[in-house]
Amino acid sequence: MRYIIYIIFIIVFGIQLKGQAVSENIAGKVSFVSSQNIYVKFMSTEGISPGDTLFISSNGKMSPVLKVNNMSSVSCVCTAISGAKLSISQEIIARKRSNKSGPEKKVIDNVVKDIPVLTVAPDSAKKKSYSGKPKQLIKGSISAYSYSDFSTPAASNSTRLRYNLSIEARNIANSRFSLESYVSFRHKIGDWSEVKSNIFNALKIYNLAVRYDLNKSTRLSLGRMLNPKISSIGAMDGLNAEKSIGNFSVGLLAGSRPDYTDYGFNIKLLQYGAYLAYNSTNADKYNESSLAFMQQMNDMKTDRRFLYFQHSNSLIKNVYFYSTFEVDLYRLKSDSLNNYVSQNTFNLTGLYLSLRYRITKNLDVNGSYDARKNIVYYESFKTFIDRIIEDEMRQSFRLSVNYRITRDLIFGVQSGYRFLKTDPHPSRNVYSYLTYSRIPGLNMSVTINGTYLESNYLNSKIYGASLSRDFFLGKFYTGIGYRYVDYRFTESLLNTIQHIGEINMSWQFARTMSFSANYEGTFEKPNRYDRIYLQIRKRF
Q1: pTM for the structure as a whole
Q2: Where are the domains of the chain?
Q3: Which of 188, 236, 292, 486 could form a disulfide with 275 if both were Cys (CB 3.0 to 4.6 A apart)?
Q4: Quick one: which of 205, 266, 258, 267 has its CA closest to 233?
Q5: Which CATH class is domain 2-190+200-233+248-539?
Q6: Could you read off the pLDDT of 49-67 as tens digits, one per residue?
Q7: Which residues contact 9 (CB under 8 A, 6 or more apart)?
Q8: How many helices (H) and strands (E) does the chain have?
């Protein structure tokens, strides 16, 4: 495993070739979140292709969060590639690329007024915009959700409500203080006792931090925060100090981790560490790296000591690289008397590599290796079978190819292979799709797809099709889909057939208001599961 780390450092620091593609960042917004997909709406998806990576921007850093599966003229259907929590209308950035020698394209920026076109400014422009007194900028949203389950047998019927508050307040009252917050409160109708027994069963604080800028290059943050430079480490409750020197930044952090049972506060889970980051972004290429050391405690005893590294770049033309890894430096080992003795080690415990090569304008290839731990969701609307299949398809080698046959016809195939030491035999999976993004005369997008999964204890076949369309310049979106699921647990020989139908819509009205609704029905003998998702959101 050490050789893999050495290879990564060679890739990161040894390649310094100049790209020749002009990069234009265009911004969209999350328009709808379903149990499997995340929908992002742009003014136009021209220049975006299936397989592209979408980003969020935080503190000047671009962090990859989504992968484009298919799309229409103004919307992309994506899947998450990170643990970042995305909310409706959150800003998402795509890197639109074109050749320098090609004709310049004029962008009409008044078609959808609340989705502006962003361009990455050179470093000189960034420094210039920082001059003068701080200027207040406050934005956020408040939203209410309902998730109702009407099933047979009726004992499992329930309705859950959730309320979200998101605030980003920069330079409050033109001062150096800023505030970021993302808080959720959820409860089940008729079951308030769970909330009374422990408030953190309902209250989930994902982000609640105040920041003070000592000067242009030094800042202090206090509260619960998720640092994008070390995002995979997760949230921390405590203090983070950061100093920027040119393209470099160094940071110190100390505090505690959220409780792993309810995501509340737990002072016994102390942690501290330091990181060094590098960020270079311009019109031709980007290069971002972070290296961190972390010490984590449990009741004042060392729980974990590790190094964390993440990197992304586009140093070679049409090649995009992203990686993270973790190396444990400490472990407890039992001796001959079954006593545990602390021991220094150098053990690779988490690794993710992703490489995308756009061979031609219409053809790109993606390869990845995932050896990270499975994600634990504190909130999820995924069905049982969705969660199982998602877990089984992670921690594997993956290869995907996306080919644009014509302007509106796109084909893609993705395969995965996994053989862990704990697996009795290899796991394999294949996913393929075909999308026609603009049916003549109907202006609809249609997608057909299929998935085959063969794992240690689950074999499944999934076939699906979906139709979608945007109306009123993207203000109204609607879609309908169907999936046929055939899965079998190999140990119990239990075979189940499911028919899953989905209807969804989202409507943006009054400029700052949006409403979305989704129905998902799962039919299997002898049971039936009906789920209805409703959401209303107000931006300010």
Answers
A1: 0.69
A2: 2-190+200-233+248-539
A3: 292
A4: 258
A5: mainly beta
A6: 666 778 776 554 566 778 7
A7: none
A8: 4, 28
